[in-house]
Amino acid sequence: MHRKEFLKMMAILPLLKSSNGLAQLLLANKPFPVTERMPVFFVGHQDFSKTPHQTPFTKNLRTMGASVTPIAILVMSAHWLTLGDTFVNLNSQFSTPEYPSKGAPEIGKLIMNETNTKEEQSRDLDHGAWSVLRHLSPDAKVPVLELSIDMSKPLDYHYQLARQLSNLRTRGVLIVGSGNIVHNLDMSALKFWSSKPYDWAMEFDNWVKDRIDERDFSSLFQFEKLGKVADYSVPTMDHYLPMLYCLSLCESDETITHTFTEVTRGLSFRCFRIS
């Protein structure tokens, strides 16, 4: 997806309305009772080792996960990208060895009934999903499903899809975006001898934090105005998009809490909670 397409969002946002269809469908589906509105988590993922590490970052994830009791978890990961279609993972059982959880095909079908998405039953969880889920829900007892990110779609598509998904929050579904606000692997590799962050990485991460705190979400769709700082921090949109999905789910009466802050080389691991 070309970055310029994201600028279209500024003109389209006021015209977009959330769908009531999914809410009506969910309310009519008795197996999914109405619940208090679940939070939304954005996680700057790391720790892809076979054995999960105990670090301040992973301790933060466990604290975030322990604060909620969802009936299912929906993940939008920077590592399941598609072109031309959006897919819902409808596996009833995942064989991902790092996180052998059950799927949530019933909720996936509800999403498909009200959105322009297709089903995928053979795909296991990618590492952007299991690397955070094994800390957010370490016993793997909560059913999981994953939604792909279609990189061919303009920004209004992603915004509308997020708004349609927002109704899941009152049906006990925890929505998790897994990506990184700053994600430049090439520049990080050049700094292998040190974990000290680049100045541009710190600047961009702090700029995003300020825009979130000020509820100036529109500026986050125009990040290119920062010039080289933005070019270095977001060389591709894959890891930035999950954050935009999460912010699109934010309601006007909700607070946003930054639960973890760390920038290493050219990578940001900032996490936040919307609730």
From TrEMBL:
The keyword GTP-binding does not apply. Keywords: Dioxygenase, Metal-binding, Oxidoreductase, Signal, Zinc. Its cofactor is Zn(2+). Residues 1-23 form the signal peptide. One of its GO terms (molecular function) is ferrous iron binding. It comes from the Bacteria. InterPro entries: Extradiol_dOase_DODA, Xdiol_dOase_suB. PANTHER family: 4,5-DOPA DIOXYGENASE EXTRADIOL-LIKE PROTEIN. This is Dioxygenase. It comes from Rhizosphaericola mali.
